[in-house]
């Protein structure tokens, strides 16, 4: 089953012209403003004020952020990592397989198929979906952070699924990464319990 999940973590592309530089500068400036007026505990929550979770067309460019109100979990994760690292947080990207109810996957499949963007390949079957998030060090503690919902991964407040497998895609600055008692091995899909 694990071998079938071959997605790479999502990375936003940059045009060689000024369009993407300008939009990225705007995103960073907006985040700088949030550092002054917003909560310091879990940054990047302002993204939810502007963007809703929804289909994104890939490759996704920085300048696409100027013309869309929706972005998928890969866009949320890439932007959040960039902004968190600008703020000095240590973080690494994670990929997740989540279990979901058939009613959820049906609803999401309809939402994606009604869009002209991308495919619904992230819906693995009627009970499992692919998701992207972050492992972040906050106050010297490891937090599995879902920037799409601005919640901890697996939070009871999440409207998504429950993590069943996690893959750490890059080292977390030399730190060992545990989901509960389960150690995540770099680059490998690891079966996890529901709670961290
Ligand atoms: Zn561009």
Notes on the structure:
- Helix content is 26%, strand content 25%.
- It is an alpha+beta fold.
- The chain has a single domain (2-191), classed as Roll (C8orf32 fold).
- Strands 3, 4, 5, 6, 7, 8 and 11 form a seven-stranded antiparallel sheet that branches.
- Strand 6 (141-146) and strand 7 (151-152) form a beta hairpin.
- It is globular.
- Bound molecules: zinc ion.
- Zinc ion is lined by residues 15, 19-20, 61-63.
Give the radius of gyration.
Answer: 16 Å
| Low-confidence runs | none
CATH class: Alpha Beta
Mean pLDDT: 91
- Alpha-carbon distance between the termini? 22 Å
Structural class: alpha+beta
Count the strands? 11
> The CATH topology is what?
C8orf32 fold
Topology order in helix (H) and strand (E) letters: HHEEHEHEEEEEEEE
> What CATH architecture would you give?
Roll
Number of domains: 1
| Helix content range | 25-40%
Q: What ligand molecules are bound, each kind once? A: zinc ion
Strand content: 25-35%
Overall geometric form: globular
* Main sheet makeup: 7 strands, antiparallel
Number of helices: 4
